From TrEMBL:
CDD domains hit by this protein: Radical_SAM (cd01335)
Superkingdom of origin organism: Bacteria
Stated name of the protein: Probable dual-specificity RNA methyltransferase RlmN
GO cellular component, one term: cytoplasm
One biological process term in Gene Ontology: tRNA methylation
Organism: Thermoflavifilum thermophilum
Catalytic activity from the UniProt record: adenosine(37) in tRNA + 2 reduced [2Fe-2S]-[ferredoxin] + 2 S-adenosyl-L-methionine = 2-methyladenosine(37) in tRNA + 5'-deoxyadenosine + L-methionine + 2 oxidized [2Fe-2S]-[ferredoxin] + S-adenosyl-L-homocysteine; adenosine(2503) in 23S rRNA + 2 reduced [2Fe-2S]-[ferredoxin] + 2 S-adenosyl-L-methionine = 2-methyladenosine(2503) in 23S rRNA + 5'-deoxyadenosine + L-methionine + 2 oxidized [2Fe-2S]-[ferredoxin] + S-adenosyl-L-homocysteine
EC number per UniProt: 2.1.1.192
Cofactor (UniProt): [4Fe-4S] cluster
Length: 363
């Protein structure tokens, strides 16, 4: 009987591992590259799909390796074109990815963890707690699936990838960087790292590590309040990673990499949307060569005490920033009709519909 649990995951083998395996299986050497291409370029879901490999070899592969792939369990399309996917992992946990069309851009927003340990007070994922880190192939699969949806719906590839879904990417450092390697590699999806932005709630020591590792992608700081006093109220991580320390880490990152750094700032009604808040934000913005401040309209989530800033207040906030020559953009709330706030869909599935949705394993 097949021992499925002990078979190694085929996607944990490097190209040289595959070359060794192919030689041991008495197959021609070029099979290793064919196989690697199916895994990382063509995004095959099963060995059976690898149509240019001999049937006997595919059977041997299926016998020797496991090949778990994310399952797309739920797709929701908003009236504004936003597509939200609920992905089921092979152990039954769920994560979300979103495809956001906007102007010329087709952006994939992906998750790095199932749940999140950081407990930000405005975030649905924060209320889930951390379930586990994702493996690199699980992050890769989200991008590959969203890219396929982009091709089906818009006839073209993704233009941008943001790590702004569930989880704190810097707390799953190794797997996130391995995933980005496959996403950007010419042997993989061949995306430009300049089109990738990793968003962090701010873990100083890991920002130093990104700089030392000379990464090529951009960074976004999820700031959401420009003083330590306010930020600590909504983001517990701020108690151990204060704003001045984060700014020092970001300065180091910028000096070493020259990659873009932006600020994300969700406008929360009567909490961080006053003129004083705008002034504090401008002061902080001037400390580093931030590329842009992305103001984000809040998508209220049921467990959070916050609500969306009224549009005339948001307009005043933006106008002040613009008068101060801040490069500012307002990101309109997308997909409000489809639970598109970070963690919202998974929360619905976990808390309300978990009994109704079948858990489908990846294989
Ligand atoms: S905002 Fe990001 S870091 Fe904060 S709880 Fe949500 S997923 Fe985690």
């Amino acid at each position: 009987m097949k021992q499925t649990s002990v078979r190694p995951n085929i996607r944990h083998l490097s190209l040289s591992d595959l070359q060794e395996y192919v030689a041991g299986a008495a197959q021609p050497a070029y099979r290793a590259r064919q196989l690697y291409g199916w895994l990382w370029q063509k995004h095959a879901r099963s060995f059976e799909q690898m149509s240019d490999l001999p049937k006997t070899f595919r059977e041997k592969l299926a016998n020797d390796f496991s090949f778990p792939v994310l399952n797309v369990e739920l797709l929701q399309q908003s009236r504004d074109g936003t597509v939200k996917c609920l992905f089921r992992l092979s152990d039954g946990k769920a994560v979300e990815g979103v495809l956001i069309p906007s102007g010329d851009r087709l952006t994939a927003c992906v998750s790095s963890q199932a749940g999140c340990s950081l407990g930000c007070k405005f975030c649905a994922t924060g209320y889930l707690g951390l379930q586990r880190n994702l493996m690199f192939e699980e992050i890769f699969d989200q991008v590959a699936f969203l890219n396929e949806i982009a091709m089906q719906q818009a006839g073209r590839r993704l233009t941008n990838i943001v790590f702004m879904g569930m989880g704190e990417p810097l707390l799953n450092y190794k797997q996130v960087l391995l995933a980005i390697d496959k996403i950007t590699s010419p042997d993989g999806l061949a995306f430009s790292p300049r089109r990738i932005t990793l968003s962090t709630a701010g873990i100083s020591k890991m920002i130093y590590r990104l700089a030392d590792d000379q990464v090529k992608f951009n960074l976004a700081l999820s700031l959401h309040a420009a003083t330590d006093e306010k930020r600590s109220q909504i983001m517990p991580i701020n108690q151990s990673n204060r704003i001045p320390d984060l700014l020092e880490a970001l300065e180091y990152f910028y000096k070493l990499t020259r990659n873009e750094i932006s600020i994300e700032y969700i406008l929360l009604k009567d909490f961080n949307d006053s003129l004083d808040d705008a002034k504090a934000l401008v002061k902080l913005y001037r400390k580093l060569p931030f590329k842009v401040v992305n103001l984000i309209e809040y998508n209220p989530v049921s467990l959070s005490p916050f609500s969306r800033t009224e549009s005339h207040v948001a307009d005043q906030f933006i106008a002040y920033l613009q008068r101060q020559h801040v490069n500012v953009r307002l990101r309109r709330s997308r997909g409000a009709d489809i639970d598109a706030a970070c963690g919202q869909l998974a929360n619905v599935v976990h808390t309300e519909a978990a009994q109704r949705l079948p858990h489908v394993n990846a294989r």
